[in-house]
Amino acid sequence: MDPSREFMRDVKRVVVKVGTAVVTRPDGKLALGRLGAVCEQVKELLQEGIEVIFVTSGAVGVGRQKLRHQRMMNSSFVDLQRPQSDLDGKACAAVGQSGLMALYDHLFDLLDVACAQLLVTDNDFKNPAFREQLLDTCHTLIGLRVVPVFNENDAISTRKAPYKDSTGIFWDNDSLAALLALELKADLLILLSDVEGLYTGPPSDPKSKLIHTYLKEKHDDMVTFGEKSRVGRGGMTAKVYAAWNAASAGIPVVITSGFGSKGLQRVLCGEKIGTLFHKDANRWVALKETGAREMAVAARNASRRLQALSTAERRQALLDVADALEANEALIRAENDADLEIAHQAKTSPSLIGRLTIKQGKITALANSIRVLADMKEPVGKILQRTEVAEGLVLEKTTCPLGVVLVIFESRPDALVQIASLAIRSGNGLLLKGGKEAMRSNAILHKVITDALPKSVGPALIGLVTTREEIPDLLKLDDTIDLVIPRGSNQLVSQIKESTKIPVLGHADGVCHIYVDKAADVDKAQRIIMDSKLDYPAACNAMETLLVHEALVEDGRLEKLVFALQSAGVSLYGGPRAVEKLRLPKAANFHTEYSALACTVEIVEDENAAIDHIHEFGSAHTDCIVTEDNDIAEKFLQSVDSAAIFRNASTRFCDGARFGLGAEVGISTSRIHARGPVGVEGLLTTRWLLRGDGHLVSGDRGVVYTHRNLSNEESFKSLANGDASCNGSAH
After folding, report:
1. What Cα–Cα distance (Å) separates residue 105 from each residue in 20, 36, 101, 125, 148?
2. Topology adopted by domain 302-382+398-498
3. Whether pTM exceeds 0.90
4. Where are the alpha helices (DSSP H) in 505-556?
5. Which intervals hold domain Aldehyde dehydrogenase (predicted)?
6. Which of 324, 432, 534, 731 could bridge 403 with an S-S bond, Cβ 3.0-4.6 Å?
7. Backbone phi, psi, residue 602, to 5°
């Protein structure tokens, strides 16, 4: 549930208003399927114990369609050639109202829901006795589980042109719905429209953006309205005016599309759909939001301030972050529990819930890994090469931060901590976009970390992107963001690569293999296999495919391995040979990352067949051989083209912390820049520093190039071991 929508938990009475554009199709006829879907949603709300008051438009539109048809049927061919006068709106309302209500009565009756028609005019509300009777009648109907269906009685309205005149206590069904929400003390008003909500401009304009929470001080001058409703009176302008009035009086309002099958349920579940109007909107919307470019520029500027700090100061910043995490563990776990509750309610898969969970002891482990990172040798400003170009002209190749890194990661809150700590250690600015399932966990972790940063650096060093809509804008900033790291599926990585000119460091699927050779110690193999699969099944470095030499079938060793896995609750799926020999269900695809207690098993002829299988179906992540034959082991290690290749060790060792990197930003399966667990070094690039004393090229005349390597000289060693700092960025 989005923080701005948490009040939805307490909603007991809701007014739902359906606009004419929802009731009718573009040709003016009734949209029967759409109305049926809305009525079904109303029934579901009633079953959940929520009281519903219904307000409908559409009578004038339906009546106009009927009268046009009637006029055509009663006209001669000559009459039809003459210009046709406009139909009277009141007559249209009178004709359309009965048909519209008959339809609602039929649709609700099919769902075993009773409804009642209530026609009102604005003059009625001037009478206190009428208002009192209206309340009594509504309360009686609601108590009987009858849905009151309201509509303005345009046929007898005293306004000369009710579809144009906006005077009176209310002037259309949007303002009527707002008035009824106040009179009946509703907890929420939902205005269903033919668009997703309020946009900054006409919805058809690609530059227009959906406003999730309306703040009058910010959006009043920003919004430009398109054409009015094709069939109704006021379109979005009328809805915004009615919504603002209701919200100012204390009734929250959501404008959203009436075209979806579960729109009402999604609103009441607290999803961030449509546009919210709320008297406390300023709690969730800043008067001036930081745009994508501003966020990236702020991160770059903060990274330069971070780089200007000494090694000791950068180290202390990391230690402060570690201490802050431990000090706020109770708060972090409470927010994580809230995310988990929502995930369970949404029937999220067990593997995703496993990644989402911050387990007991995890915060302490994360804090300790940050302390290890802090105690590492200074990576920034390290001299990699020192060369005397000519006498008195010395060139140095040094490490420095990339600049600004955008990381889009999955629903693992601990990933945020690791990535942020690596950014601090490497001197980079950072933009983070985590999975929506971990929204609250990510928000509190981000706050704890940025609050602990030195005030001279500022919290802008690490920006948290909260909505998916911001990602396209960020991916356009190839002049400001230096690297994108998407952690997720191949599909996500491919989408990112196709959408940006920024270099992408791809972290794709983790289809990790273990090949058990004929020369394997079966007990050792069993321990390695069980650890690789059971230690953390949802991890990207968990074993997903077990390949075994055919000799293990003949001597019974394979049967022992299969029995161990099945006894531990692992579901096994076979390739063609395993299906035949072991009677296993057939694997849907050899390239499958189960992220759960399941794996694929296949029998291969030898190590060459295993290597070919890994190259064809693997993800170049982590692959392992279990064997006591040194020659076969070395052949496997040198031949398999993956980021990490192991011998006689669990695939779970492929991890930045376990490799001694302190933490990891991800495990890259790319071949350029960084590969395998990406630690601090993967977030660094190089630059050249040249120190001279008036040296000139001048056509290379008079320059004697020595190109002497100074890397091993004592002068280089003293520089390399000193208190290095990198004052500035590579960009």
Report:
1. 18, 11, 6, 26, 11
2. Aldehyde Dehydrogenase; Chain A, domain 1 (3.40.605)
3. no
4. 522-534, 551-554
5. 289-567
6. 731
7. -145, 150
